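User: My collaborator sent over this chain with a note saying "see what the structure looks like." That's all I know about it. Can you take a look?
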Amino acid sequence: MPYFICPNCQNRSIDHDGREGLLDQAAACQRCGFGFLFELMDDYYPAPGAGFVVTDRDARILAIGRGVFELTGYRERDLLGRDLLGALGLEGASGDQHPAAVALEWGVRRLGERLRLRTRAGIDKVVTADFFPAYDEDGGLLVALAPR
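Assistant: Without extra context I'll predict from the sequence alone. Here is the result:
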């Protein structure tokens, strides 16, 4: 049974087909009305104070959820369409590839990555980041950013 999470309010749900009733449209959040849910392989409980960022297959930001503004100072209109790594200044990944690139290329989750991000005020913050690849035909990535 697939698990789904709302990128905006972090409401978790289970749905057998990921569709809204008998219609052939993607399921929306029943709690906040956000336009789509993100499918996960396993249930996931985000850390307190976490914010979600959703990207396309090229790591361009499509949406941000609650908690991202509080963590970064950026509003959604400031980030839409921008590259995830460049827009938030995410760095500090160990190894050759950034965890976002690994999750997108290999379709694997990367959990508990300790990274630095740059806030809108130019301050570096240490965060814990979890990366989830999308399992639909559109591809993409869900990134949960939580303060350390």
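A starting point for your reply to your collaborator: The chain has a mean pLDDT of 89.
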